[in-house]
Amino acid sequence: MPPDQNLERWTKIFVYATSLMMLVNLYNIFIFVPNEASMGIIQRIFYFHVPSAFIAFLAFGVTFVYSILFLAKRKMWHDRVAYCSAEIGVIFTTVVLVTGPIWARPVWNTWWTWDARLTSTLVLWFIYVGYMMLRAYTGEEQRGARFAAVFAIVGFVDVPIVYLANRLWRTLHPQPVMMGGADSGLHPTMLKVFLFSLATFLGLYLFLLFHRLRLERTRLELDEIKRELAYSQQ
Amino acid sequence: MSELHKLLALIRKDLLAEFRTKEMISSMLMFALIVVVIFNFTFDPGSRATAEAGPGILWVAFTFAGVLGLHRAMVHEVERGCLHGLMLAPVERGIIFLGKAIGNAIFIFLIELPTFLLFSVFFNIDFWRGLDKLAVIFFLGTIGFAAVGTLLSAISVNTRTREIMLPILLFPIEVPVILSAVNATAGALAGKNWSAISGWLKLLAGFDLIFLLVCFVTFEYVLEE
User: I need a surface site. Which of A5, A75, B11, B56 has the fewest CB within 10 A?
Assistant: First the structure.
């Protein structure tokens, strides 16, 4: 378990930095960046939608790595990091699933369509909500951690497969703008705003993770104290 | 005893236990048939909608009944401490996994044939048409389903909400298997040739390989005390 002061310091750093960046980010998105030609004002949701998706993947990636670490080394702390990161990942996936239809309605004239990106994102959400339910219903801590780690590994391996399978269907979702084909790419200003927004979301993720870990650390300590108390009273 | 002998002994044990009572197979089969019949109410028989929804209905019946079987098979092991006995036996955890998965696949297979027979009667489908292709699709689909199902049933059986936890965990993970199985089945039922559905079959085989490998490796972490 890392010392509390360390977590506290990082939490503080990220809360100040992220708050400041959020203000700048909002200014950027709503005032600074030019309107997109074909979609108009609704395109600005892009700066929330896409960074959330990136961060959700990052969060689940962290869960995957720490699940493997937990199975290899059996340190409770690795399991806690995996769990907290998955929790935040679910939140960001929810943001993606909410902002997507809001964007899709005026642009595609439909809230939802069963295409590759959308379906695989929804499946991703199902898998990790299942992960959290598994955590909640297993009861015993050590065993729950082991089960959750196994499920997180299978789940994370599954996500690219789902994506691959769904891709063979028709798709309405645009091709990737970043690192895509020859015609793709963003206007330089938009790219800057997007990257700044991505950094802001990354800061938010790290803040939430450190804060959540602090909470988890306190909980573990409290459990320990409770246990000692229970034994001493016997 | 070689690994193969151990594996065969495990499968034999599961089959023997089931064929003495037949309670799992019969309840799975009844359930699958009821699912097909209920979906039958949704469409006019013989209409185009039926033909389009048919493969999906078939796989819904298989997966629903499959989940029931997977759960029962693992509950049998946990009740009366059979699983502890298995864990004490000098057998690799991976072999236990393979034994259970193959046993489960056989049970699901056994209900697929009569279900498909009834399905083709209710939905006016020529039973013999594309049966060779369907056999391959059912085989590959069942393998993928049983592999992940065996791993996750071993997990879910230890949770407080046992029987509801399994489908919640299993179905999202199985999406690629079900997706390609349904598409391949649709192709086979529509009378397409092998090359037309080979893409889906390759995908299905690929999923099976990946899932078998991942489940084989991770199963030992599930069975631990």
Answer: A5
Contact B172 A154 (CB under 8 A): no
> Which of A37, A54, A35, A55 is CA-nearest to residue A45?
A35
pLDDT at A25 over 80: yes
For A121, nearest residue in chain B (alpha carbons): B172
Q: Which residues contact A30 (CB under 8 A, 6 or more apart)?
A: A44
Q: How far apart are CA B85 and CA A109, in angstroms?
A: 59
**Neighbour count for residue A188 (Cβ, 10 Å):** 8
Residue at A208: amino acid letter: L
- Whether A179 shows a pLDDT value over 60: the answer reads no
Q: What is the ipTM of this complex?
A: 0.89
> What whole-number distance in Å separates Cα of residue A183 and Cα of residue B82?
61
pTM: 0.88
A93, burial (CB in 10 Å: exposed 0-12, middle 13-18, buried 19+): buried
- B81: exposed, middle or buried (Cβ count in 10 Å: 0-12, 13-18, 19+): exposed
Question: Which neighbouring-strand residues pair with A40?
Answer: A36
Q: DSSP label at A40? A: B
For an interface test with B, give the residue of A150, A157, A163 to mutate (most B CBs within 10 A).
A150
Q: Is A36 helix (H, G, I), strand (E, B) or coil?
A: strand
Report whether pLDDT(A183) > 90: no
Distance separating alpha carbons of residues A73 and A223, to the nearest angstrom: 22
CA A208 to chain centre: 10
Instruction: Check CB contact of B213 with chain A, cutoff 8 Å.
Output: no
At A185, the pLDDT band (50, 70, 90 cuts) reads: low
Q: Retrieve residue B183's tokens.
A: 């598409």
Mutate: best of A146, A158, A163, partner B, most B CBs <10 A: A158
CA distances from B1 to B5, B8, B88, B90 (A): 6, 11, 16, 10
